[in-house]
Amino acid sequence: xxxxxxxxxxxxxxxxxxxxxxxxxxxxxxxxxxxxxxxxxxxxxxxxxxxxxxxxxxxxxxxxxxxxxxxxxxxxxxxxxxxxxxxxxxxxxxxxxxxxxxxxxxxxxxxxxxxxxxxxxxxxxxxxxxxxxxxxxxxxxxxxxxxxxxxxxxxxxxxxxxxxxxxxxxxxxxxxxxxxxxxxxxxxxxxxxxxxxxxxxxxxxxxxxxxxxxxxxxxxxxxxxxxxx
Length: 229
Ligand SMILES: [Zn+2]
Hints:
binds zinc ion, mainly alpha, Arc Repressor Mutant, subunit A, two-stranded antiparallel ribbon
């Protein structure tokens, strides 16, 4: 193991045990070098890696806000890791669709069980925005993806939210490709609006199983009818 990898492993351990606070400041470079018995250059290299992964944010200067802060939002590191994975592996669209069905059917059921009007306000607002007949297909699909992410957020599970946010670009790319091959976009938009309304209504009614079935049919139906991938 190279020295900076050793530092990464030790920092990970310190996060797990609470010796380094999530949301708090990372100890200074020289202190970490001493603690881990490595050079300051190795610590600096590890900090660069953590920053690139979105685990920490560094602020320049010497004031109280200076230094490296451990980011509290778990979506950032999970998101960047998954995005790289999706980009570099060229994962099949069918796998992305299958993962969406698994995650989103669970998420809408959880949201139906515990989300109030406040947690669903974002999704409701997005449905309204998608009613605008002046939207281009691309604008519509951007809102569509946001709607699905908002529903997942309403489930209140941080890991699920992070995964959905990470998959967002992958989802957007394949649905945009699918729609560009369609001959009748307005008809498809009308159908997607109706299906979204059905999903949200079931969640608002607290009918988890109906919401799960509706979102599954929505995702699989779009995929089957456009035949992308
Ligand atoms: Zn949709």
